[in-house]
Amino acid sequence: MMPRKLMTLITVIAASSVVSPVFAAEEPGSSEFQKADALYKKLKMKEAEAAFREVIRKEPDNARAHQRLGAVLGAMGEEETAILETKQSIKLDPKYFLSHIILGQLYANQGKMDLALEEFKTAVALKPTSFRATQDLGFAYAQMGKLDDAIATYRKAAQIDAKDPRPHINMGVLMAQQNKFQDGIKAEEEALRLDSNCVEAHVNLGNIYAEQGNAERAVDSFRDAIRIAPNHPNAHSGLGWMLAKQGDAKGAQAEQRKAIKYQPNFGPAHRRLAQVLADGGNNAEAAKEFQEALKWSPKDVTARVEFAQFLEKQGKKADAITEYKKALEINPNSKIAQEGIDKLSKTQ
Question: Do 183 and 134 sit in the same domain of this protein?
Fold first, then answer.
């Protein structure tokens, strides 16, 4: 079972929605390989693809070329072909750690976290000093709900590169998910010690303080994030969330609308705006915002439950039950959804 996730906490994850370029030290190779590699490092993917294919045509057993081509294809969204190329690289040289990182990222992008985990484990075993491999391994553990393993892995990443704030950012999020709020705060503060302009750490601190019930500190953290990144949707939405808690409905609406302006598909901002509107009696607009939230984030259990509660207050019991049931389909362990269904079923 996946752990409870704090509302809109940000994690600077190591594996992204595309395969991120991973560079090793300068490696030996033909002049053709070096030219192709230079294109790859400049992120000229189309040109790099053609260049690496030409290298492979001349040197079909060049494991590095297959690995680079796999990375290029993955970055271009051609994941299945990228997997084939990366597997070929591993077949030719199973001890080359970069190939396992790339294959792990490709699997992670496809949601195959069990396979990704094994590849990242292999990469770390082959090169324990690789910051990227260790970060990716921590990410895989976190995605599979193995939070203790993830935190321990991020600690190792922090030892490998003591100047990089990202392991501390990730540790803070995971510690907060374990309700170890003070530990989470310390981790985010360490990230800020390393980089005072780290927006993600400020936003994470805001969310952790919010979960603690410390609205004033949360507001300060969200405002700090906005000073650094004025167009940051998560920071504005978090600030609006806390202003609503403090009874500032006007300010809350303004911040949620800013978040939506900067990122129209940001579901939590629509959901939070819907709640503020509903609390103010603007039910028609609230219903529209709930629908927007679910359009952009259909698997947001909180949005489903809050919409169901809204419908329940409107006397739309059948519709409310439908939303509660959808919430249960997403998270069978949602007590609020089950209690809502039980209560409404008795009154029908």
Answer: no
